[in-house]
Amino acid sequence: MAKIIRQDQINPHTYVLWLEEKSVPKPGQFYMVYPKDGAKLLGRPISVFDYHEGQLGLLYEVVGGGTEEFSKLEAGEDLRILGPYGRGFTPYPDKKVACIAGGVGLAPFIYLSRFLKGTTRVYFGTRDAQGFGDYLKDYPLDLKIQEGGYITEAVDFQAYDQFYTCGPRVMMNAVLDRCRQEDKDLELSLEERMGCGFGACLACSCQGKEGRKKVCLDGPVFAKEELDHA
Protein backbone atom coordinates (compact mmCIF):
# COMPACT_ATOMS: atom_id res chain seq x y z
CA MET A 1 0.00 0.00 0.00
CA ALA A 2 1.16 3.52 -0.78
CA LYS A 3 0.18 6.68 1.10
CA ILE A 4 -1.35 9.43 -1.02
CA ILE A 5 0.47 12.75 -0.66
CA ARG A 6 -1.83 14.86 -2.82
CA GLN A 7 -3.75 15.07 -6.09
CA ASP A 8 -3.02 17.77 -8.66
CA GLN A 9 -5.77 18.51 -11.17
CA ILE A 10 -4.33 19.80 -14.44
CA ASN A 11 -7.68 20.25 -16.19
CA PRO A 12 -11.22 18.87 -15.79
CA HIS A 13 -10.22 15.33 -16.79
CA THR A 14 -6.45 15.05 -16.18
CA TYR A 15 -4.75 14.52 -12.82
CA VAL A 16 -1.37 13.76 -11.28
CA LEU A 17 -1.57 11.45 -8.26
CA TRP A 18 1.39 11.82 -5.87
CA LEU A 19 2.27 8.88 -3.62
CA GLU A 20 4.95 7.91 -1.14
CA GLU A 21 7.21 5.31 -2.77
CA LYS A 22 10.61 3.97 -1.71
CA SER A 23 11.47 2.07 -4.91
CA VAL A 24 13.18 4.25 -7.50
CA PRO A 25 11.69 3.62 -10.97
CA LYS A 26 13.46 3.94 -14.29
CA PRO A 27 12.09 6.35 -16.91
CA GLY A 28 9.46 4.61 -19.00
CA GLN A 29 8.43 2.08 -16.35
CA PHE A 30 4.88 1.85 -14.99
CA TYR A 31 2.87 0.86 -11.93
CA MET A 32 -0.30 -1.19 -11.62
CA VAL A 33 -2.77 0.88 -9.62
CA TYR A 34 -5.79 -0.85 -8.09
CA PRO A 35 -9.20 0.74 -7.43
CA LYS A 36 -10.53 0.39 -3.90
CA ASP A 37 -13.86 -0.84 -5.27
CA GLY A 38 -13.58 -4.63 -5.06
CA ALA A 39 -15.88 -5.01 -8.07
CA LYS A 40 -13.15 -3.52 -10.25
CA LEU A 41 -10.55 -6.24 -9.80
CA LEU A 42 -8.04 -5.37 -12.50
CA GLY A 43 -5.39 -2.76 -11.95
CA ARG A 44 -4.71 0.12 -14.30
CA PRO A 45 -1.21 0.44 -15.77
CA ILE A 46 -0.05 4.04 -15.30
CA SER A 47 3.31 5.37 -16.47
CA VAL A 48 5.69 7.15 -14.14
CA PHE A 49 5.21 10.89 -14.63
CA ASP A 50 7.91 11.87 -12.15
CA TYR A 51 9.84 10.62 -9.15
CA HIS A 52 11.84 12.74 -6.72
CA GLU A 53 12.95 12.18 -3.12
CA GLY A 54 10.48 9.39 -2.37
CA GLN A 55 7.52 11.01 -4.13
CA LEU A 56 6.01 9.20 -7.12
CA GLY A 57 3.82 11.07 -9.60
CA LEU A 58 1.35 9.21 -11.85
CA LEU A 59 -0.43 11.09 -14.63
CA TYR A 60 -3.85 9.76 -15.63
CA GLU A 61 -6.97 10.78 -17.51
CA VAL A 62 -10.48 10.04 -16.27
CA VAL A 63 -11.95 7.72 -18.90
CA GLY A 64 -13.99 5.18 -16.91
CA GLY A 65 -15.08 3.94 -13.51
CA GLY A 66 -11.62 3.02 -12.24
CA THR A 67 -9.95 6.32 -13.07
CA GLU A 68 -13.06 8.19 -11.90
CA GLU A 69 -12.53 6.54 -8.52
CA PHE A 70 -8.85 7.57 -8.53
CA SER A 71 -9.85 11.21 -9.06
CA LYS A 72 -11.81 11.20 -5.79
CA LEU A 73 -8.94 9.93 -3.63
CA GLU A 74 -7.61 12.31 -1.01
CA ALA A 75 -4.32 12.96 0.79
CA GLY A 76 -3.67 10.51 3.63
CA GLU A 77 -5.55 7.60 2.06
CA ASP A 78 -3.79 4.33 1.23
CA LEU A 79 -3.80 2.93 -2.28
CA ARG A 80 -2.65 -0.46 -3.54
CA ILE A 81 0.06 -0.19 -6.19
CA LEU A 82 2.50 -2.74 -7.62
CA GLY A 83 5.69 -1.91 -9.47
CA PRO A 84 7.74 -0.47 -10.93
CA TYR A 85 7.32 -2.84 -13.87
CA GLY A 86 8.59 -3.16 -17.41
CA ARG A 87 11.54 -2.17 -19.53
CA GLY A 88 12.02 1.57 -19.66
CA PHE A 89 13.74 4.05 -21.95
CA THR A 90 17.47 4.18 -22.55
CA PRO A 91 18.52 7.79 -21.81
CA TYR A 92 21.05 9.29 -24.23
CA PRO A 93 22.24 12.50 -22.53
CA ASP A 94 24.80 13.27 -25.24
CA LYS A 95 22.39 13.06 -28.18
CA LYS A 96 20.07 15.73 -29.52
CA VAL A 97 16.73 14.36 -28.37
CA ALA A 98 13.08 14.93 -29.25
CA CYS A 99 10.09 13.35 -27.51
CA ILE A 100 6.79 13.09 -29.40
CA ALA A 101 3.74 12.56 -27.22
CA GLY A 102 0.00 12.29 -27.67
CA GLY A 103 -2.51 12.59 -24.81
CA VAL A 104 -1.43 10.89 -21.58
CA GLY A 105 1.50 9.54 -23.61
CA LEU A 106 3.17 12.70 -22.34
CA ALA A 107 3.66 11.12 -18.91
CA PRO A 108 6.95 9.17 -19.29
CA PHE A 109 8.83 12.07 -20.88
CA ILE A 110 8.63 14.31 -17.83
CA TYR A 111 10.63 11.85 -15.73
CA LEU A 112 12.88 10.98 -18.68
CA SER A 113 13.89 14.65 -18.91
CA ARG A 114 15.66 14.29 -15.54
CA PHE A 115 18.08 11.82 -17.17
CA LEU A 116 18.91 13.94 -20.21
CA LYS A 117 21.33 16.82 -20.50
CA GLY A 118 19.99 20.37 -20.68
CA THR A 119 16.49 21.13 -21.89
CA THR A 120 14.42 18.36 -23.47
CA ARG A 121 12.32 19.18 -26.53
CA VAL A 122 8.85 17.67 -26.20
CA TYR A 123 6.24 17.84 -28.96
CA PHE A 124 2.87 17.28 -27.31
CA GLY A 125 -0.39 16.81 -29.18
CA THR A 126 -3.62 16.79 -27.19
CA ARG A 127 -7.35 17.34 -27.57
CA ASP A 128 -7.36 19.66 -24.55
CA ALA A 129 -4.20 21.68 -23.80
CA GLN A 130 -5.78 23.49 -20.86
CA GLY A 131 -3.52 23.63 -17.81
CA PHE A 132 -0.50 21.71 -19.12
CA GLY A 133 1.71 24.72 -19.83
CA ASP A 134 1.28 26.15 -16.34
CA TYR A 135 1.68 22.80 -14.60
CA LEU A 136 4.90 21.92 -16.42
CA LYS A 137 6.55 25.34 -16.39
CA ASP A 138 9.13 24.41 -13.73
CA TYR A 139 10.40 21.30 -15.54
CA PRO A 140 13.49 21.42 -17.82
CA LEU A 141 11.37 21.13 -20.95
CA ASP A 142 11.15 22.96 -24.25
CA LEU A 143 7.48 22.14 -24.65
CA LYS A 144 5.56 22.62 -27.88
CA ILE A 145 1.86 22.00 -27.27
CA GLN A 146 -0.56 21.55 -30.16
CA GLU A 147 -4.30 21.20 -29.63
CA GLY A 148 -5.78 19.05 -32.38
CA GLY A 149 -4.24 18.16 -35.72
CA TYR A 150 -1.11 16.06 -36.20
CA ILE A 151 1.77 16.89 -33.88
CA THR A 152 4.18 14.96 -36.13
CA GLU A 153 3.81 17.69 -38.77
CA ALA A 154 5.47 20.15 -36.38
CA VAL A 155 8.64 18.04 -35.99
CA ASP A 156 11.83 18.60 -37.99
CA PHE A 157 13.05 15.01 -38.03
CA GLN A 158 16.43 15.96 -39.46
CA ALA A 159 17.22 18.20 -36.48
CA TYR A 160 17.50 15.40 -33.89
CA ASP A 161 19.55 12.25 -33.36
CA GLN A 162 17.30 10.34 -30.96
CA PHE A 163 13.52 10.13 -30.78
CA TYR A 164 11.14 8.80 -28.14
CA THR A 165 7.39 8.49 -28.64
CA CYS A 166 4.29 7.46 -26.71
CA GLY A 167 0.62 7.98 -27.47
CA PRO A 168 -2.03 6.90 -29.99
CA ARG A 169 -0.98 4.15 -32.39
CA VAL A 170 -1.64 6.30 -35.48
CA MET A 171 0.77 8.93 -34.19
CA MET A 172 3.44 6.44 -33.15
CA ASN A 173 3.29 4.66 -36.51
CA ALA A 174 3.75 8.01 -38.26
CA VAL A 175 6.83 8.66 -36.08
CA LEU A 176 8.10 5.13 -36.78
CA ASP A 177 7.75 5.61 -40.54
CA ARG A 178 9.58 8.96 -40.50
CA CYS A 179 12.41 7.66 -38.32
CA ARG A 180 12.91 4.77 -40.73
CA GLN A 181 12.93 7.13 -43.69
CA GLU A 182 15.45 9.45 -42.01
CA ASP A 183 17.46 6.58 -40.43
CA LYS A 184 16.95 7.99 -36.92
CA ASP A 185 17.09 6.08 -33.63
CA LEU A 186 13.70 5.66 -31.97
CA GLU A 187 12.23 4.08 -28.86
CA LEU A 188 8.46 3.60 -28.60
CA SER A 189 6.42 3.12 -25.43
CA LEU A 190 3.34 1.04 -26.23
CA GLU A 191 0.03 1.51 -24.43
CA GLU A 192 -1.97 -1.68 -23.86
CA ARG A 193 -4.64 -2.93 -21.50
CA MET A 194 -3.01 -5.18 -18.91
CA GLY A 195 -4.26 -7.79 -16.50
CA CYS A 196 -1.34 -8.47 -14.19
CA GLY A 197 1.54 -6.20 -15.21
CA PHE A 198 4.29 -8.81 -14.94
CA GLY A 199 3.81 -11.22 -17.85
CA ALA A 200 1.66 -13.99 -16.37
CA CYS A 201 -1.69 -13.40 -18.04
CA LEU A 202 -0.66 -12.67 -21.68
CA ALA A 203 -3.39 -10.01 -21.94
CA CYS A 204 -1.04 -7.37 -23.33
CA SER A 205 0.86 -9.28 -26.00
CA CYS A 206 1.80 -7.56 -29.25
CA GLN A 207 3.43 -8.68 -32.49
CA GLY A 208 7.17 -8.08 -32.68
CA LYS A 209 9.50 -8.81 -35.57
CA GLU A 210 10.61 -12.01 -33.84
CA GLY A 211 7.25 -13.25 -32.55
CA ARG A 212 4.78 -12.22 -29.87
CA LYS A 213 5.99 -9.86 -27.14
CA LYS A 214 4.55 -9.13 -23.71
CA VAL A 215 4.20 -5.37 -23.47
CA CYS A 216 4.38 -5.41 -19.67
CA LEU A 217 7.53 -7.54 -19.53
CA ASP A 218 9.41 -7.16 -22.83
CA GLY A 219 8.29 -3.51 -22.97
CA PRO A 220 6.50 -1.24 -22.69
CA VAL A 221 9.49 0.40 -24.41
CA PHE A 222 10.74 -1.11 -27.67
CA ALA A 223 13.42 0.01 -30.11
CA LYS A 224 12.18 0.59 -33.65
CA GLU A 225 14.16 -2.42 -34.85
CA GLU A 226 12.00 -4.73 -32.69
CA LEU A 227 8.64 -3.78 -34.22
CA ASP A 228 6.99 -3.77 -37.63
CA HIS A 229 4.42 -1.31 -36.32
CA ALA A 230 3.22 0.19 -33.04
From TrEMBL:
Molecular function as annotated in GO: 2 iron, 2 sulfur cluster binding; flavin adenine dinucleotide binding; metal ion binding; oxidoreductase activity
Residues that hold FAD according to the record: 44-47, 66-67
Domain FAD-binding FR-type: 1-91
Matching Gene3D superfamilies: Dihydroorotate dehydrogenase, electron transfer subunit, Nucleotide-binding domain of ferredoxin-NADP reductase (FNR) module, Translation factors
Endpoints of the signal sequence: none
UniProt keyword annotations, A-Z: 2Fe-2S, Electron transport, FAD, Flavoprotein, Iron, Iron-sulfur, Metal-binding, Transport
Cofactor note: Binds 1 FAD per subunit.
A Pfam family it matches: DHODB_Fe-S_bind
InterPro entries for this protein: Cyt_c3_hydrogenase_gsu, Dihydroorotate_DH_ele_sf, Dihydroorotate_DH_Fe-S-bd, FAD-bd_FR_type, FNR_nucleotide-bd, PyrK_electron_transfer, Riboflavin_synthase-like_b-brl
Biological processes per GO annotation: pyrimidine nucleotide biosynthetic process
Coiled-coil intervals: none
Residues the entry annotates as binding [2Fe-2S] cluster: 196, 201, 204, 216
Essential cofactor(s): FAD; [2Fe-2S] cluster
Family per record: Belongs to the PyrK family.
Protein name (database record): Dihydrdoorotate oxidase B, electron transfer subunit
Organism listed in the record: Urinicoccus massiliensis
Gene name for this UniProt entry: pyrK_1
